[in-house]
Amino acid sequence: MGRYAARRLLQMIPIFIGTTLLIFLMVHILPGDPVRAIYGDKAPDPAQIAQIKREYGFDKPVLEQYVHYMWNLLQGDFGKNLAGRPVTELMSEAFPVTLRLTLLAITIEIIIGVGLGAWAGLRAGKAADTGVLVFTLTVISIPVFVLGFIARFIFADELGWLPPNVQDSTDFSQLFLPAFVLAMLSMAYVARLTRTTFAENLRADYMRTALAKGLPRRRIIGVHLLRNSLIPVVTFVGTDVGGFIGGAVITEGIFNIQGVGNLLYRAIQTSEGSTVTGVVTVLVLVILLINLLIDLLYAVLDPRIRYA
Amino acid sequence: MRGAKSAKWVAGAIVVALAATACGGGDDSAGDDMNKGKADPNGIVTAQLSEPQNPLQPANAKESQGSRVLRTIFAGLVDYEPGTGKLEYVNAESVTPNDDSSEWTVKLKPGWKFHDGTPVTAKSYVDSWNWSANIKNNQTNSSWFSDIVGFEDVHPEKGDPKSDKMSGLKVVDDNTFTIKLTQPVSYFAYKLGYDVWAPLPEAFFKDPKAFGEKPVGNGPYKFVSWEHNKLIKVRKFADYKGPNTAKNGGIDFKNYTTADAAYSDLRSDNVDWIEQVPTTALTSYKTDLGDRAIDEPYSAVQSIIPAFYTKQFKDIDPKVVQGLSMAIDRQTITKTVLQGTRTPADSYVAPGVLGYKKGALGDIVKFDPAQAKKLIQEGGGVPGNKLSIQYNADQDHKPWVDAVCNSIRKSTGVECTGDPKPTFQADLDARDNEQVKSMYRGGWVLDYPVNSNFMRDLYGSAAAGNTSGYSNKEFDKLSSEADKASSIDETVKLYQQAEQLLAKDMPAIPLWFYKVNSGQSKNILGKIEYGQDGDPIFESIQVKQK
Fold first, then answer.
1. A88 part of contact set with chain B, CB < 8 Å
2. A241 and A291 in contact (C-beta within 8 Å)?
3. Which residues of chain A have a CB within 8 Å of the CB of B136?
4. Selected residue of B151, B229, B270 to mutate for chain A interface (largest A Cβ count, 10 A)
5. Which residues of B touch A86 (CB under 8 A)?
6. pLDDT at B102 over 50
7. B250 forms bridges with which residues in the sheet?
8. Among A303, A307, A291, CA closest to A234
9. pTM (2 decimals)?
């Protein structure tokens, strides 16, 4: 297991270099000159533009810029944005916000998703099962921005139960609505996934054995069935964490949350290369680590799985 | 079956919710009287803001967000009377030119202090301008100082600056300094109202970077805090000596990422002012907000501009462009497609600016398909009988570009299509590199309220804002004569003559003037007053006592 983990960690290095290079090149070929864009419709000042480009190293070839960037990155320096603020500072403001939102969303997703799935799975074929299937299908087919707008409209604008926007991201009552919207879609998938594996495993041999041994029903379901059914769910939820952090752009936009999604969106709009590359670099790291963590979790859930 | 029931419930909830809004809208407009109640001199106004792109240094605020904050913290030498554009003195006691307006003497009102207690002197201005003009300091607005003698020394086109002082600036005594210009500019005093000319305290030069995070000004409000992406707080400065003392206790600039989010907060009175009603609410905001809806003109114009460097427009007969202008139904488009957010343009110069003349362009901006066809024919037609209008697709331009094209196609038979560029940056790139295929969208918000700003700075042969390749020696001569005129009235008159010259030449087709479509919350007493740049006059906003 230790050797496996070490090997996986080493594999991350080429993946990391490859992805960052790709991102760096992609940002570079975005149309438009970010420095010129500061001036908008108004007259640009060529001398000043040249001076700013020199300061940021934009006048050098892309590959040289990349090597320079990576060299600084190794020393923990993510560069600065066009306003002169260090990217690490921007990220340290945005990541905790999105992390809180993601954690809350994941919690909601697991509790409701697994609960609903288990409930339906145990009643496979009955009305309750059909009900959950129809409900999840409805949720899956509604785009997240529609869901977000409807939720805000009903619960904030009209009923006034929750604030329409997030002003303070440390206040979980403000984060609840966006987290719920963010969780909805994955929650439906988790419910369906749980339901299917539950229904399948119910017919498994070890279940019959457990039943024949005369174990109490709570123990059969809570330990034997749940644990064995969670492997695909854990994989899904795990990859979702990375997805949530990067893909919260829409939800963060609707509810005015100043998180990673928003930071990334604004940075892409203004072609802020250093911010985009910095955020994506961290996201790549997060997703790589989470994948490793999931793979290691398998062994905990099912001791038959071994790593060589 | 359960599924079917829950779906029914959702649909039911939406119907109920929609019914609730319909009632809610009516209640809002009837139930509150914004002129009733007493003002709270310590009340805090909350206003919408996006994160400023640059540190809060006066010469660095190219975009509106940063300058919205800076304008509350700094008081310049002069300001303008809203609506008329007349010059008003703020920190200056007088700004007087010599005989040919090439040298200006500024006298300051004595006894002014920065928020840190240090005095505002002539040196505060001169040092500020020298620093801001210096190319090494990367201030985006540094070219504003280019009228001053010695600008090339601190801001050379290539290489390092030769000096860190402009020789044209001289401190005479604590409250007096002089400015020598490279050539006469009769309206130079008018330019001084822009953010870039603000004074800076001694503390600034010790650490400009830290200052940008925590600015110290001389204006009606002092800076308190800046939580990035969240909130900027400014509070009333008790010792402020200017004419525009704050009628409220301070402003909280709250950050919003979308217009929809801000509008949602305005409706629930969580924010007192938003900058623009979202497109989705344009048809309903007046019923939603009642009297609290804001629909005010400001001094900005939108045009479409032929790229004169292209084969198509190189030797074009101006009659063709005049014809195209007459083929556009401005009345209908502003009313329908733009939902009344603009008013049809009748001149090159926007209203509220000195020298704006109602109907200056006469028939050229009237919709007349028959005359349009005739003019285009007389001028030899549009080469290729088709044209395109370039715009950036990351903003809401497509609907009106399509409408303009439709109007041209229908009334003249000239084929017209939109030419979208994915981002504003890409759009600007194409303009700078002279790659526009036919025509492009242009917009201009005033820098200072003199008609020269809408003409010389856009259509002068050497003007940096001229990206179409238009050039007319006669116009250049007339504008330099106007700049040298002995009085501002004379200047304005000569520029009005120049405008008639442009009407014959058609360097651009003005389409419409902008309006602010916004709203205010129930916490505000009376209607918010607006400046010509489309921003509220924050000092004058009154908060209702609770």
1. no
2. no
3. 51
4. B229
5. none
6. yes
7. B44, B235
8. A291
9. 0.81
d(CA B240, CA B3): 66
Maximum average pLDDT range among A61-70, A79-88, B201-210: B201-210
| Shortest Cα distance, chain B CAs vs residue A45, angstroms | 7
ipTM of the complex: 0.73
CB atoms A37 and B424 under 8 Å: yes
Name the superfamily (CATH) of residues B44-246+521-525. Periplasmic binding protein-like II (3.40.190.10)
8 Å CB contact of B142 and A45:
yes
Query: Which residue in the set B53, B262, B425 is minimally distant from A271, CB to CB?
Result: B425
Whole-angstrom distance, CA of residue A34 vs CA of residue A267: 10
Is A84–B140 a contact, with Cβ atoms under 8 angstroms apart?
no
Is residue B364 over pLDDT 90? yes
Helix, strand, coil % in chain B, rounded to nearest 5: 40, 20, 40
Question: Which pair of tokens denotes residue B416?
Answer: 């017209």
| A207-217 tens-digit pLDDT | 888 889 888 88
> Could you report the per-residue pLDDT of B61-72, keeping only the tens digit for each?
777 888 899 999
Q: Out of 3.90.1750.10, 3.30.830.10, 2.170.270.10, 3.10.105.10, which CATH number does the structure's domain B298-515 have?
A: 3.10.105.10
List, in order of start, the domains of chain A with CATH numbers.
15-87 (no CATH), 90-305 (1.10.3720.10)
Domain extents in chain B: 44-246+521-525, 298-515
pLDDT band of B29, cuts 50, 70, 90: very low
Residue where the block lists tokens 């242009």: B442
Taking residue A137's Cβ as centre, other Cβ atoms within 10 Å add up to 12
The pLDDT assigned to B120 comes to: 96
| Residue B60 DSSP label | G
Q: Torsions phi, psi of A141, nearest 5?
A: -85, -10
